[in-house]
Protein backbone atom coordinates (compact mmCIF):
# COMPACT_ATOMS: atom_id res chain seq x y z
CA UNK A 1 0.00 0.00 0.00
CA UNK A 2 1.37 3.40 -0.95
CA UNK A 3 2.23 5.92 1.81
CA UNK A 4 -0.77 8.20 1.16
CA UNK A 5 -3.08 5.30 1.82
CA UNK A 6 -1.45 4.75 5.21
CA UNK A 7 -3.05 8.02 6.30
CA UNK A 8 -6.54 6.89 5.43
CA UNK A 9 -8.91 5.53 8.09
CA UNK A 10 -9.60 1.86 7.90
CA UNK A 11 -13.02 0.44 7.51
CA UNK A 12 -14.48 -2.05 9.88
CA UNK A 13 -17.82 -3.39 10.82
CA UNK A 14 -19.29 -3.75 14.23
CA UNK A 15 -22.48 -5.00 15.50
CA UNK A 16 -24.90 -3.82 18.23
CA UNK A 17 -25.77 -6.55 20.22
CA UNK A 18 -23.91 -10.25 19.79
CA UNK A 19 -20.38 -9.02 19.91
CA UNK A 20 -18.18 -8.65 22.98
CA UNK A 21 -18.64 -4.96 22.44
CA UNK A 22 -22.39 -5.44 22.64
CA UNK A 23 -22.03 -7.80 25.54
CA UNK A 24 -20.12 -5.10 27.43
CA UNK A 25 -22.02 -2.06 26.14
CA UNK A 26 -25.62 -2.87 25.19
CA UNK A 27 -26.33 -5.43 27.93
CA UNK A 28 -24.77 -3.21 30.58
CA UNK A 29 -26.70 -0.21 29.29
CA UNK A 30 -30.02 -1.99 29.28
CA UNK A 31 -29.38 -4.55 32.03
CA UNK A 32 -29.18 -7.77 30.04
CA UNK A 33 -26.37 -9.49 31.89
CA UNK A 34 -26.73 -12.61 33.90
CA UNK A 35 -25.23 -11.10 37.03
CA UNK A 36 -27.99 -8.51 37.23
CA UNK A 37 -31.02 -10.57 36.30
CA UNK A 38 -31.28 -14.17 37.35
CA UNK A 39 -34.89 -14.79 38.29
CA UNK A 40 -36.70 -14.75 34.96
CA UNK A 41 -36.91 -17.70 32.60
CA UNK A 42 -36.69 -15.39 29.61
CA UNK A 43 -33.28 -14.17 30.69
CA UNK A 44 -31.65 -17.41 29.67
CA UNK A 45 -32.49 -16.40 26.14
CA UNK A 46 -30.83 -12.99 26.37
CA UNK A 47 -27.51 -13.77 28.00
CA UNK A 48 -24.88 -11.97 25.92
CA UNK A 49 -22.24 -13.89 24.01
CA UNK A 50 -18.79 -12.44 23.78
CA UNK A 51 -15.97 -12.54 21.24
CA UNK A 52 -14.99 -11.27 17.79
CA UNK A 53 -14.23 -12.58 14.34
CA UNK A 54 -13.48 -11.10 10.94
CA UNK A 55 -16.59 -11.13 8.75
CA UNK A 56 -15.29 -9.83 5.40
CA UNK A 57 -12.74 -7.49 3.82
CA UNK A 58 -12.54 -5.41 0.68
CA UNK A 59 -11.18 -2.17 -0.75
CA UNK A 60 -13.36 0.80 -1.61
CA UNK A 61 -13.06 2.88 -4.82
CA UNK A 62 -10.91 5.47 -3.04
CA UNK A 63 -8.38 2.87 -2.00
CA UNK A 64 -9.49 2.67 1.60
CA UNK A 65 -8.95 -0.63 3.33
CA UNK A 66 -12.19 -2.03 4.71
CA UNK A 67 -13.19 -5.00 6.81
CA UNK A 68 -16.21 -6.19 8.72
CA UNK A 69 -15.97 -7.37 12.32
CA UNK A 70 -18.61 -9.73 13.71
CA UNK A 71 -18.62 -11.16 17.18
CA UNK A 72 -18.88 -14.94 17.72
CA UNK A 73 -19.60 -16.86 20.87
CA UNK A 74 -17.26 -17.08 23.83
CA UNK A 75 -17.47 -20.12 26.10
CA UNK A 76 -16.38 -20.27 29.70
CA UNK A 77 -14.31 -23.14 31.03
CA UNK A 78 -13.56 -24.24 34.58
CA UNK A 79 -10.32 -26.06 33.88
CA UNK A 80 -7.35 -25.36 36.06
CA UNK A 81 -5.41 -22.14 35.83
CA UNK A 82 -2.28 -22.75 33.80
CA UNK A 83 -4.00 -24.90 31.15
CA UNK A 84 -6.72 -22.30 30.56
CA UNK A 85 -4.10 -19.56 30.35
CA UNK A 86 -1.90 -21.53 27.97
CA UNK A 87 -4.76 -22.43 25.64
CA UNK A 88 -5.79 -18.81 25.55
CA UNK A 89 -2.32 -17.65 24.59
CA UNK A 90 -1.97 -20.36 21.98
CA UNK A 91 -5.21 -19.50 20.22
CA UNK A 92 -4.39 -15.80 20.41
CA UNK A 93 -1.18 -16.36 18.49
CA UNK A 94 -3.14 -18.40 15.92
CA UNK A 95 -5.58 -15.49 15.61
CA UNK A 96 -2.67 -13.09 15.19
CA UNK A 97 -1.50 -15.26 12.29
CA UNK A 98 -4.85 -14.76 10.59
CA UNK A 99 -4.68 -11.03 11.18
CA UNK A 100 -1.22 -10.84 9.61
CA UNK A 101 -2.59 -12.69 6.57
CA UNK A 102 -5.22 -9.94 6.29
CA UNK A 103 -2.43 -7.37 6.53
CA UNK A 104 -0.66 -9.18 3.65
CA UNK A 105 -3.65 -8.42 1.42
CA UNK A 106 -3.82 -4.79 2.52
CA UNK A 107 -0.20 -3.64 2.73
CA UNK A 108 2.13 -4.16 -0.22
CA UNK A 109 5.00 -2.59 1.67
CA UNK A 110 4.84 -5.38 4.29
CA UNK A 111 4.23 -8.20 1.80
CA UNK A 112 7.55 -9.98 2.18
CA UNK A 113 7.40 -9.79 5.96
CA UNK A 114 3.87 -11.25 6.07
CA UNK A 115 4.97 -14.25 3.96
CA UNK A 116 7.67 -15.01 6.49
CA UNK A 117 5.30 -14.54 9.44
CA UNK A 118 2.72 -16.82 7.83
CA UNK A 119 5.21 -19.68 7.72
CA UNK A 120 6.22 -19.08 11.32
CA UNK A 121 2.63 -18.93 12.51
CA UNK A 122 1.71 -22.16 10.72
CA UNK A 123 4.54 -23.85 12.54
CA UNK A 124 3.27 -22.48 15.83
CA UNK A 125 -0.25 -23.63 14.98
CA UNK A 126 0.94 -27.22 14.63
CA UNK A 127 2.74 -26.99 17.98
CA UNK A 128 -0.35 -25.53 19.64
CA UNK A 129 -2.50 -28.36 18.37
CA UNK A 130 -0.01 -30.78 19.88
CA UNK A 131 -0.29 -28.92 23.21
CA UNK A 132 -4.10 -28.93 23.00
CA UNK A 133 -4.04 -32.75 22.63
CA UNK A 134 -1.91 -33.22 25.74
CA UNK A 135 -4.76 -33.08 28.27
CA UNK A 136 -2.82 -34.63 31.13
CA UNK A 137 -0.05 -32.04 31.40
CA UNK A 138 -1.98 -28.85 30.53
CA UNK A 139 -4.97 -28.60 32.87
CA UNK A 140 -4.40 -25.27 34.62
CA UNK A 141 -6.83 -22.39 34.96
CA UNK A 142 -4.79 -19.28 34.14
CA UNK A 143 -3.81 -20.44 30.65
CA UNK A 144 -7.46 -20.82 29.60
CA UNK A 145 -8.33 -17.36 30.92
CA UNK A 146 -5.59 -15.78 28.80
CA UNK A 147 -6.66 -17.90 25.84
CA UNK A 148 -10.20 -16.49 26.10
CA UNK A 149 -8.82 -12.96 26.36
CA UNK A 150 -6.82 -13.50 23.16
CA UNK A 151 -10.03 -14.72 21.46
CA UNK A 152 -11.48 -11.27 22.12
CA UNK A 153 -8.45 -9.63 20.52
CA UNK A 154 -8.77 -11.54 17.23
CA UNK A 155 -10.95 -9.01 15.34
CA UNK A 156 -9.09 -6.07 16.87
CA UNK A 157 -5.70 -7.07 15.46
CA UNK A 158 -6.57 -6.25 11.82
CA UNK A 159 -8.15 -3.00 13.07
CA UNK A 160 -4.81 -1.92 14.53
CA UNK A 161 -2.92 -3.05 11.43
CA UNK A 162 -5.19 -1.02 9.16
CA UNK A 163 -5.38 1.98 11.46
CA UNK A 164 -1.64 2.73 11.38
CA UNK A 165 -0.56 6.29 10.71
CA UNK A 166 3.09 5.40 10.43
CA UNK A 167 5.29 2.33 10.13
CA UNK A 168 6.49 2.48 13.73
CA UNK A 169 3.09 1.42 15.11
CA UNK A 170 3.05 -1.70 12.93
CA UNK A 171 6.69 -2.50 13.73
CA UNK A 172 5.97 -2.29 17.44
CA UNK A 173 2.90 -4.51 17.10
CA UNK A 174 4.81 -7.15 15.14
CA UNK A 175 7.56 -7.10 17.72
CA UNK A 176 5.03 -7.81 20.45
CA UNK A 177 3.74 -10.79 18.47
CA UNK A 178 7.28 -12.12 18.05
CA UNK A 179 7.92 -11.74 21.77
CA UNK A 180 4.72 -13.55 22.68
CA UNK A 181 5.57 -16.36 20.27
CA UNK A 182 9.01 -16.72 21.86
CA UNK A 183 7.49 -16.84 25.32
CA UNK A 184 4.98 -19.50 24.27
CA UNK A 185 7.73 -21.65 22.82
CA UNK A 186 9.49 -21.56 26.17
CA UNK A 187 6.27 -22.34 28.02
CA UNK A 188 5.72 -25.33 25.77
CA UNK A 189 9.06 -26.76 26.92
CA UNK A 190 8.58 -26.00 30.60
CA UNK A 191 5.30 -24.85 32.15
CA UNK A 192 5.72 -22.22 34.79
CA UNK A 193 8.87 -20.67 33.37
CA UNK A 194 7.24 -17.28 32.68
CA UNK A 195 5.63 -14.54 34.71
CA UNK A 196 1.99 -15.02 33.74
CA UNK A 197 0.80 -11.87 35.48
CA UNK A 198 3.19 -9.75 33.41
CA UNK A 199 2.02 -11.46 30.24
CA UNK A 200 -1.59 -10.88 31.24
CA UNK A 201 -0.94 -7.16 31.73
CA UNK A 202 0.65 -6.93 28.28
CA UNK A 203 -2.45 -8.47 26.75
CA UNK A 204 -4.70 -6.02 28.61
CA UNK A 205 -2.56 -3.08 27.49
CA UNK A 206 -2.77 -4.20 23.88
CA UNK A 207 -6.53 -4.61 24.16
CA UNK A 208 -6.91 -1.08 25.56
CA UNK A 209 -4.97 0.45 22.67
CA UNK A 210 -7.01 -1.46 20.14
CA UNK A 211 -10.31 -0.45 21.71
CA UNK A 212 -9.23 3.19 21.51
CA UNK A 213 -9.21 2.71 17.75
CA UNK A 214 -12.79 1.43 17.84
CA UNK A 215 -14.00 4.61 19.53
CA UNK A 216 -13.38 6.50 16.27
CA UNK A 217 -16.27 4.74 14.50
CA UNK A 218 -18.51 6.90 12.36
CA UNK A 219 -21.81 6.15 10.64
CA UNK A 220 -22.04 2.96 8.63
CA UNK A 221 -24.14 1.00 6.16
CA UNK A 222 -26.35 -1.87 7.30
CA UNK A 223 -24.85 -5.23 6.32
CA UNK A 224 -26.47 -7.81 8.61
CA UNK A 225 -29.17 -8.32 11.26
CA UNK A 226 -28.76 -11.02 13.91
CA UNK A 227 -31.00 -12.26 16.71
CA UNK A 228 -33.53 -11.90 18.06
CA UNK A 229 -32.79 -11.74 21.77
CA UNK A 230 -36.08 -12.23 23.60
CA UNK A 231 -36.32 -9.79 26.49
CA UNK A 232 -39.88 -10.33 27.70
CA UNK A 233 -43.30 -11.73 26.78
CA UNK A 234 -46.08 -9.30 27.66
CA UNK A 235 -48.99 -7.27 26.42
CA UNK A 236 -51.19 -7.73 23.38
CA UNK A 237 -50.15 -8.74 19.90
CA UNK A 238 -49.33 -5.12 19.03
CA UNK A 239 -47.35 -2.48 20.89
CA UNK A 240 -44.10 -0.57 21.29
CA UNK A 241 -41.20 -0.43 23.75
CA UNK A 242 -38.11 1.75 23.62
CA UNK A 243 -35.23 3.51 25.35
CA UNK A 244 -33.88 7.02 24.75
CA UNK A 245 -30.89 7.03 22.33
CA UNK A 246 -29.73 10.39 23.74
CA UNK A 247 -29.83 9.31 27.39
CA UNK A 248 -26.61 9.03 29.37
CA UNK A 249 -24.93 5.68 29.89
CA UNK A 250 -26.35 5.48 33.41
CA UNK A 251 -29.89 6.27 32.28
CA UNK A 252 -31.43 3.04 30.97
CA UNK A 253 -35.12 3.80 31.42
CA UNK A 254 -37.57 1.73 29.36
CA UNK A 255 -40.96 2.96 28.12
CA UNK A 256 -43.79 0.56 27.28
CA UNK A 257 -46.91 1.35 25.22
CA UNK A 258 -49.30 -1.58 24.73
CA UNK A 259 -51.76 -1.74 21.81
CA UNK A 260 -51.98 0.44 18.69
CA UNK A 261 -55.07 2.47 19.62
CA UNK A 262 -57.56 3.31 22.36
CA UNK A 263 -54.83 3.78 24.96
CA UNK A 264 -53.13 6.72 26.67
CA UNK A 265 -51.08 4.97 29.39
CA UNK A 266 -47.27 4.89 29.09
CA UNK A 267 -45.41 2.71 31.60
CA UNK A 268 -41.86 3.53 32.67
CA UNK A 269 -39.20 1.20 34.11
CA UNK A 270 -35.82 2.26 35.49
CA UNK A 271 -33.94 -0.48 33.64
CA UNK A 272 -34.33 -3.57 31.48
CA UNK A 273 -34.01 -5.63 34.67
CA UNK A 274 -37.01 -3.83 36.16
CA UNK A 275 -38.86 -4.14 32.87
CA UNK A 276 -38.35 -7.91 32.83
CA UNK A 277 -39.39 -8.31 36.47
CA UNK A 278 -42.35 -5.94 36.06
CA UNK A 279 -41.05 -3.40 38.60
CA UNK A 280 -42.81 -0.37 37.17
CA UNK A 281 -41.43 2.98 38.38
CA UNK A 282 -43.97 5.42 36.96
CA UNK A 283 -46.96 5.76 34.64
CA UNK A 284 -47.97 8.65 32.40
CA UNK A 285 -51.52 9.42 31.33
CA UNK A 286 -51.15 11.16 27.96
CA UNK A 287 -53.60 13.94 27.05
CA UNK A 288 -54.44 12.18 23.76
CA UNK A 289 -54.77 8.60 22.56
CA UNK A 290 -52.06 7.46 20.17
CA UNK A 291 -52.38 5.84 16.75
CA UNK A 292 -50.19 2.92 15.64
CA UNK A 293 -47.06 1.61 17.35
CA UNK A 294 -44.45 3.84 15.72
CA UNK A 295 -43.61 6.17 18.59
CA UNK A 296 -40.14 7.28 19.66
CA UNK A 297 -38.53 8.61 22.83
CA UNK A 298 -35.87 11.18 22.00
CA UNK A 299 -33.95 13.46 24.36
CA UNK A 300 -36.40 12.98 27.22
CA UNK A 301 -39.61 13.48 25.24
CA UNK A 302 -42.13 11.13 23.66
CA UNK A 303 -43.13 11.77 20.03
CA UNK A 304 -46.35 10.09 18.86
CA UNK A 305 -49.14 10.35 16.30
CA UNK A 306 -52.40 11.66 17.74
CA UNK A 307 -55.30 9.24 17.13
CA UNK A 308 -57.41 9.84 14.01
CA UNK A 309 -55.22 12.70 12.77
CA UNK A 310 -51.93 13.48 11.07
CA UNK A 311 -50.86 15.55 14.08
CA UNK A 312 -47.54 14.80 15.78
CA UNK A 313 -47.34 15.35 19.54
CA UNK A 314 -44.19 16.07 21.58
CA UNK A 315 -44.76 15.15 25.24
CA UNK A 316 -42.21 15.81 28.01
CA UNK A 317 -41.78 13.05 30.60
CA UNK A 318 -40.13 15.50 33.00
CA UNK A 319 -42.94 18.06 33.04
CA UNK A 320 -45.88 15.87 32.03
CA UNK A 321 -46.89 18.47 29.45
CA UNK A 322 -47.28 18.71 25.69
CA UNK A 323 -44.36 20.82 24.46
CA UNK A 324 -45.35 20.98 20.78
CA UNK A 325 -47.82 19.64 18.25
CA UNK A 326 -47.94 20.04 14.50
CA UNK A 327 -49.90 18.65 11.57
CA UNK A 328 -47.81 16.66 9.10
CA UNK A 329 -48.99 18.21 5.86
CA UNK A 330 -50.70 15.85 3.36
CA UNK A 331 -49.78 12.77 5.42
CA UNK A 332 -52.32 9.95 5.22
CA UNK A 333 -53.70 8.68 8.54
CA UNK A 334 -56.17 6.22 10.11
CA UNK A 335 -55.26 3.27 7.87
CA UNK A 336 -55.07 5.22 4.60
CA UNK A 337 -51.38 4.36 4.11
CA UNK A 338 -50.40 1.92 6.88
CA UNK A 339 -47.74 -0.78 6.84
CA UNK A 340 -48.84 -4.22 5.64
CA UNK A 341 -50.22 -5.22 9.06
CA UNK A 342 -52.52 -2.18 9.34
CA UNK A 343 -53.02 -0.94 12.90
CA UNK A 344 -53.16 2.80 12.04
CA UNK A 345 -49.42 2.63 11.31
CA UNK A 346 -49.62 5.41 8.69
CA UNK A 347 -47.09 7.72 10.38
CA UNK A 348 -43.83 6.25 11.67
CA UNK A 349 -41.69 8.44 13.95
CA UNK A 350 -38.06 7.41 14.43
CA UNK A 351 -34.61 8.68 15.37
CA UNK A 352 -31.04 7.83 14.34
CA UNK A 353 -27.53 9.29 14.60
CA UNK A 354 -28.63 12.37 12.62
CA UNK A 355 -31.87 13.31 14.35
CA UNK A 356 -35.67 12.95 14.35
CA UNK A 357 -37.61 11.62 11.33
CA UNK A 358 -41.17 10.98 10.14
CA UNK A 359 -41.95 8.34 7.52
CA UNK A 360 -45.40 8.41 5.92
CA UNK A 361 -47.19 8.54 2.55
CA UNK A 362 -49.20 11.18 0.68
CA UNK A 363 -51.65 11.31 -2.19
CA UNK A 364 -49.27 13.73 -3.89
CA UNK A 365 -46.60 10.99 -3.92
CA UNK A 366 -49.10 8.37 -5.11
CA UNK A 367 -49.09 6.56 -1.78
CA UNK A 368 -45.32 6.06 -1.86
CA UNK A 369 -43.12 6.65 1.16
CA UNK A 370 -42.10 10.19 2.06
CA UNK A 371 -39.20 10.80 4.47
CA UNK A 372 -39.16 14.06 6.45
CA UNK A 373 -36.51 15.29 8.83
CA UNK A 374 -38.09 17.12 11.77
CA UNK A 375 -36.98 19.85 14.14
CA UNK A 376 -37.10 18.11 17.51
CA UNK A 377 -38.28 21.27 19.30
CA UNK A 378 -40.91 22.69 16.95
CA UNK A 379 -41.73 19.56 14.86
CA UNK A 380 -41.25 21.69 11.75
CA UNK A 381 -40.33 19.73 8.62
CA UNK A 382 -36.75 20.67 7.76
CA UNK A 383 -36.52 18.72 4.50
CA UNK A 384 -38.42 15.94 2.73
CA UNK A 385 -37.53 13.15 0.27
CA UNK A 386 -40.08 11.38 -1.93
CA UNK A 387 -39.34 7.72 -2.63
CA UNK A 388 -40.89 5.32 -5.10
CA UNK A 389 -41.67 2.57 -2.57
CA UNK A 390 -45.39 2.00 -1.82
CA UNK A 391 -46.08 2.50 1.89
CA UNK A 392 -48.77 -0.18 1.98
CA UNK A 393 -46.26 -2.75 0.63
CA UNK A 394 -43.80 -2.12 3.46
CA UNK A 395 -43.74 -4.38 6.50
CA UNK A 396 -41.82 -1.92 8.69
CA UNK A 397 -38.99 0.59 8.31
CA UNK A 398 -36.23 2.21 10.35
CA UNK A 399 -33.49 4.84 9.91
CA UNK A 400 -29.74 4.30 10.38
CA UNK A 401 -27.32 7.15 9.66
CA UNK A 402 -29.79 9.01 7.44
CA UNK A 403 -30.73 5.95 5.37
CA UNK A 404 -34.23 4.46 5.47
CA UNK A 405 -34.36 0.65 5.46
CA UNK A 406 -37.69 -0.95 4.48
CA UNK A 407 -38.78 -4.55 5.07
CA UNK A 408 -40.99 -6.31 2.55
CA UNK A 409 -43.29 -7.97 5.11
CA UNK A 410 -44.28 -8.15 8.77
CA UNK A 411 -44.60 -11.95 8.64
CA UNK A 412 -42.24 -14.93 8.50
CA UNK A 413 -39.62 -14.62 5.75
CA UNK A 414 -39.39 -10.85 6.04
CA UNK A 415 -36.16 -9.17 4.97
CA UNK A 416 -34.80 -5.67 4.45
CA UNK A 417 -35.67 -5.25 0.81
CA UNK A 418 -35.18 -1.55 0.01
CA UNK A 419 -33.07 1.35 1.24
CA UNK A 420 -33.11 5.08 0.50
CA UNK A 421 -30.20 7.39 1.34
CA UNK A 422 -31.19 10.96 2.23
CA UNK A 423 -27.55 11.96 1.84
CA UNK A 424 -27.41 11.05 -1.87
CA UNK A 425 -31.18 10.98 -2.64
CA UNK A 426 -30.72 7.53 -4.16
CA UNK A 427 -32.21 4.11 -3.48
CA UNK A 428 -31.21 0.48 -3.89
CA UNK A 429 -32.80 -2.93 -3.49
CA UNK A 430 -31.23 -5.03 -0.77
CA UNK A 431 -31.48 -8.59 0.53
CA UNK A 432 -30.79 -8.60 4.29
CA UNK A 433 -32.76 -11.36 6.03
CA UNK A 434 -33.60 -11.44 9.72
CA UNK A 435 -35.34 -14.01 11.91
CA UNK A 436 -39.01 -13.18 12.55
CA UNK A 437 -39.16 -15.72 15.36
CA UNK A 438 -42.72 -15.04 16.50
CA UNK A 439 -44.26 -14.54 13.05
CA UNK A 440 -45.76 -11.03 13.32
CA UNK A 441 -43.80 -7.79 13.76
CA UNK A 442 -45.78 -4.63 14.55
CA UNK A 443 -42.88 -2.36 15.59
CA UNK A 444 -39.23 -2.20 14.47
CA UNK A 445 -37.06 0.78 15.44
CA UNK A 446 -33.31 1.46 15.54
CA UNK A 447 -31.60 2.79 18.67
CA UNK A 448 -28.35 4.59 17.82
CA UNK A 449 -26.96 4.42 21.37
CA UNK A 450 -27.40 0.65 21.64
CA UNK A 451 -26.70 -0.04 17.95
CA UNK A 452 -29.70 -2.38 18.00
CA UNK A 453 -33.22 -2.79 16.64
CA UNK A 454 -36.08 -2.83 19.15
CA UNK A 455 -39.07 -4.91 18.00
CA UNK A 456 -42.53 -5.94 19.18
CA UNK A 457 -42.95 -9.45 17.79
CA UNK A 458 -46.41 -10.90 18.44
CA UNK A 459 -46.44 -10.00 22.14
CA UNK A 460 -42.70 -10.56 22.57
CA UNK A 461 -40.32 -7.67 23.21
CA UNK A 462 -37.10 -8.53 21.38
CA UNK A 463 -33.77 -7.01 20.31
CA UNK A 464 -31.87 -7.50 17.06
CA UNK A 465 -28.17 -6.75 16.72
CA UNK A 466 -26.98 -4.98 13.58
CA UNK A 467 -23.70 -5.22 11.70
CA UNK A 468 -22.59 -2.01 9.97
CA UNK A 469 -19.70 -1.00 7.74
CA UNK A 470 -17.87 1.77 9.59
CA UNK A 471 -15.11 4.15 8.58
CA UNK A 472 -12.38 4.96 11.10
CA UNK A 473 -11.09 8.50 10.61
CA UNK A 474 -7.64 9.54 11.72
CA UNK A 475 -6.44 13.03 12.53
CA UNK A 476 -4.55 13.00 9.24
CA UNK A 477 -7.75 12.56 7.20
CA UNK A 478 -8.88 15.66 5.37
From TrEMBL:
Show the PROSITE patterns listed in the entry. OLF
Under the heading SUPFAM superfamilies, the entry gives:
YVTN repeat-like/Quinoprotein amine dehydrogenase
Keyword Disulfide bond found: yes
Compartmental location: Secreted; Synapse
Q: List the disulfide bonds.
A: 219-401
Q: Give one GO biological process term.
A: signal transduction
What do the Gene Ontology cellular component annotations say?
extracellular space; synapse
Keyword vocabulary terms for this entry: Coiled coil, Disulfide bond, Glycoprotein, Secreted, Signal, Synapse
Signal sequence span is none
Entry annotated with the keyword Zinc-finger = no
Please identify the protein, giving its name as recorded.
NOE3 protein
Gene that encodes it: Olfm3
